[in-house]
What does this fold into?
Amino acid sequence: MQSPFFRRLWLVSIVANLCLWMNDVAAAWMMTSLTEAPLMVALVQTATTLPVFMLGLPSGALADIVDRRRLFMITQFWVAGSATLLAFAVAMDAINPTLLLVLVFANGLGLAMRWPVYSALVAELVPRPQMPAAMALNGVAMNASRIFGPIIAGLLISAGGTAWVFTVNALLSVVTGLTILGWKRERKTSALPGEQFLGAIRVGVQYVRQSPRMLTVLVRTALFFGQAASLVALLPLIARSMPGASAHSYTLLLAAMGAGAIASAFLLPRWRARFAHDEMIKRGTWGHGAALLLAAVAPNMWLALPATFGAGLAFMAVANTIAVAAQMSLPDWIRARGMSVYQMALMGGSALGAAFWGQIATITSVRFSLVLAALAGLGALWLTRGRRLEDTPIEDHTPARRFTSPIPAWSFDAASGPVLTTIEYQIDPARADEFREVMERTRRRRLSRGLLSCELFRDSSDPGRFIEYMLDESWNEHLRRLERLTTVDEELLEQRLRFHIGAEPPIMNRSIADDRHHR
It folds into this structure.
């Protein structure tokens, strides 16, 4: 918390998350008064999280190519607008289950745009060694909001009705938006023009596809949050089933879950020192499964509260471990897009999980649905035992020093393209298999930096002559890709050069498409 900008951002996130939980609690509780169908109650959670799955990657691309501060501010004003509409509909007694889901979905659109840009801003302000602590603080902010948001919502519902919750949500969202407006962010400049929106999305997808560590993170995220969504989605019905049930019952259960998550945040430094990432995920999944089983059989609040506390404790341990792994896997230039894909997996798993477990509860019972979710979480852990974060070490994102931008011999529009780059290697044919392994790692890295295509060709008349072929979308994108090279790329270059046995260095040629050929 040494950075004043991070402190301000962190305080804004507390208020924003407070609004999120107030809105979710009020909407979920209102749905229980509009219908008794478990599926409709669970769909409130789906309506909140589905927009992040749908818009995660476009919002991440925007956060990487536009002013992040301004985008964050706009999201807060959007949330204020959707909350105002919801408050008006409730006050006019025009609300029904369908309209409630639509307006909750609209509120979720603001959340979808806010999360990637917030994740990118945190990484921009916090040094990498302090990232785990910063992520833990973000967890504290989220879960403190999980405690106090429901409490405030419960008090407002008791005092003046649900409409007051949405009204306060709108006012707080406006305040946070104005707070961000007053922050003067220092932007990093580049001599190159900004990325195009669709191109930025393409590069974001390519980077994640070529990163084994991020693929492992996404699998772990979708499966864990898919089963963990069962408790959050069905919690209003658990509260309804308690003796003497009221809105305060739901508030207490959510607060206990948040308290468990906060307690976990303080224990995380000790756990991280003792357990590797994969062991943390395994133990947390076991703990969360046990908490689900206890919540399923709890006959009263005396057992339900420890169950939700334990669920929050285990949930935070797993969620923080996965989030830190995602953040540390990404360089700054792709961070918002990478985190948006992570959040798509998180929210997609949560949205589908909430709908699925709600449907199971409709067909069978809430208790059976929770038991099945606990078993499913343990089964998913066993099925993915081969995907280990420890098998894919964290990459060094330090910018490369030996690469320089090429200077063309004649003038042309830098937006022109595509650009073809070829590199010729002469190697010992007996070492061809070793060379191919290095070139495959090289190919994955080149594609992750934005190449349209990259292939390796072998001369049919000379078995020791290989030609690497690369295609960039334009000259600007070619230069941008070179800007993204790191020390890992330098190490791969040295490995490639050790295979080359020619008298001269490998021959490199860059060619740009001739527009006249298409006329």
